[in-house]
Amino acid sequence: MAVYNYTKNYAQLREDQLVAECVAAPNSLPVTDVQRLGDGTIDVYTSVALTGPQQTTLANAVAAHNGLPAGMIYGDNLLINSSFTIDQRGNSGVAVGDAAYSMDRWIVLAEGASTTLSKLGLSRGRITQSLAGSLRCGLTQIVEAINAQPYRSNPIILQGKVRVSAACNVRFAILEFGGTADTCPRDTVNNWASTTYTPGNFFTSGVNVLAVGSIAATTVDGTFSITAAPSASMNNLYAMVWFEGAQAQNTYFEVAEFGLYSGNNLRSWSTRSYSVEELLCRRYYLRLYSLDLGQAQQPARVYGGGILYSVAMRISPTGIGLAFAVNAGNAGAVSVQNNNAFGTAFYNGANNWTTGALVTISGALDAEI
Question: Which of 81, 200, 286, 333 has the least CB density, counted as fewest CB within 10 Å?
């Protein structure tokens, strides 16, 4: 074992990230651990003493390492639900329309009327060209401004693994939006047939294209990555992946270990705990499953009747398919009052409950970008 000390006072050192960057660097650096010392230096441990060229590579890796921006507590991966495990809408395997949300936080993009995103295993999503004919499709995620803005003028990397049902090219891109925060378009494609990957051609006007890449995908996982530097006026970021060419019905690609990170170097992928990931998703969309509101006090009111969200939603949400159910009498009609990002109250706008009836509510609350 050997130890190498460097003066490097990171805003926030990610030890596991730096180890992964060193291992992935040229010359196969045998780094096993990194420790931050109290004097503004770090110790890098290796399993064996390094050669001269390896020491140079290590010094370069340490210098190039970017921890999270100062004050950034959001986490390594800017993409939420990158493992495709959260599906509050129940849309896994269901065809949804172009530029619509499918599984939590993921927007599907379709040259035709719809396409299908499905969850596979623990960290993989499959996008299927599900319509007759030869068409293109893909998916994207928009990073909320409050999470994206700390990365202004800082390097970022989009990475993942992809495999396809039949060999073809798959493209991927990092886009930014500099308009009013969180008012960005969901549909990023202007012309699927265009091979000019600029706004007004392939991409819709209004977004800024930071980087576009391509991989000759096969039936075996291949790793892809691109780096970019968002502008000083960036408000939102997009991560996007799609079929470059038109594909026959039922052709699919699968993306795994999808991540958008700070820095220029490939990361070792890891998911957040399920409960944390679910809370992150609930900021944008909250499914209500027969939630008990209480007992009808009068024809329009229940004892209680309000809910506090488990996490603050992005904005005051819009109700989707909200409906009451009761154990006696009329179900009534859902009306909302005192609705905000922290909670809301429900009452019966039809004013026809049976006093004493037990009331539940189902549906969803939507605060997506």
Answer: 200
- Within 8 A by CB and 6+ apart from 244, the residues are 136, 168, 169, 170, 171, 214
Task: Among 44, 64, 84, identify where a domain stops.
Answer: 64
The SS3 assignment for 211 reads strand
d(CA 281, CA 310): 11
CB atoms within 10 A of CB 289: 10
Phi, psi angles (nearest 5°) of residue 145: -60, -40
Are residues 21 and 109 located together in one domain of the fold? no
Residue 88 in domain: no
Residues 6+ apart with CB under 8 A from 322: 288, 334, 336, 346, 361, 362, 363, 364
Cα gap 220→227, rounded to integer Å: 23
Spacing of C-alpha 351 from chain mean position: 41
Q: Which two tokens stand for residue 148?
A: 């994206």
| Total domains in the fold of the chain | 3
- CA dist., res. 128 & res. 135, Å (int): 10
Side chain identity, residue 327: N
51: how many CB neighbours lie within 10 A of its CB? 10
Angle (CA) 225-231-232 rounded to 5° is 140
Tokens found for residue 43: 């110790």
Question: Distance (Å, rounded) from C-alpha 8 to C-alpha 39?
Answer: 10
Give percent above pLDDT 90 in the chain.
73
CATH of the domain at 9: 3.30.70
- Walking along the chain (369 residues) 10 residues at a time, the average pLDDT comes out as 78 64 75 80 87 87 62 67 96 97 98 96 93 97 95 95 98 98 98 98 98 98 97 98 98 97 86 89 97 93 86 96 97 95 95 96 98
Residues 167, 217 contacting (CB under 8 angstroms): yes
DSSP 351: -
Would you say 173 and 208 are in contact if contact means Cβ atoms under 8 Å apart? no
What is the residue range of 58's domain? Answer: 2-64
Nearest to 12 by CA among 79, 76, 77: 76
Pair 223, 330 in one domain: no
Last residue of a domain, which of 277, 293, 312?
A: 277
